[in-house]
Amino acid sequence: MSSESTTETPRVRHPEKAHKPDQEVKRKPAWIRVKAPVSKEYHATRQIVRDHKLNTVCEEAACPNIGECWAQRHATMMIMGEICTRACTFCNVSTGKPGALDPFEPTNVAQAVAKLGLKHVVITSVDRDDLDDGGAEHFAQVIRATRDASPETTIEILTPDFLRKEGAVEVVVNARPDVFNHNLETVPRLYTEVRPGARYFHSLRLLDEVKRQDPAMFTKSGIMVGLGETKEEVLQVMDDLRSADVDFLTIGQYLQPTPKHHVVDRFVTPEEFKQYETMAYGKGFLMVSATPLTRSSYHAGEDFARLRAAREAKLAAAG
To answer: Are 148 and 186 in contact (CB under 8 A)?
Structure first.
């Protein structure tokens, strides 16, 4: 028997980025710095996530808001594993070959949502290009299980683009989430370097298809700024999303996870975010969240309540 160690070499989190030269991670301005998570409520949420063997985008994507959200027992579930088949240059989620789907995950997510007492839950996932339906049926199972376990909880999903997965969107829409979110992430010019595995106009068509299948379903999308886009390009994205009748827009500052990731072009000021918010409301969005720390699931429950109220007010005004 060999005396050599049989310990496996740890899997590289971002193998596709390993060869890239390190780029300086710029120091964050004062308006973006957040406190480290230390509260007992944060640790209680973390334990519930661990007990149910769940992944969260809060941890995998290194979200700066994790301390605040978990202190309020708000965790964003990330289903279908922790390994993504895509290699976006902005994202901190691991890239590689994913494992098989966990058949117990829908139940585990549902039980965790009930135990956390969530009034609103956001459920997202890695990209699963390896699956015939991109994971659409698994999304549907998680939605149904959560609905059964917590009938009063509103459900928001943040899906992949289901590129080349015919019929996937219909499967998810038929499971009746309250909000269907799919992020464009950036402006079309930057797709080849920021989101190379995706297609801008396919993502737009996905959002449009959701509305065609269920006009009453709330749709949502978001972008990051500080990647090198221009103001004019951001305004064009707003127009594109309104052409797909998207209800809710989020805009947040891109933060570089590691020296191997896409560099931050600049830190957009809070005043500029306020201008984007004003312009987006002027273009007809029912709800807009545009701040440096805005993320898809940040304050999602409170925002959903405002979104629903905005639609009711609009319908009442239309008489």
So the answer is: no
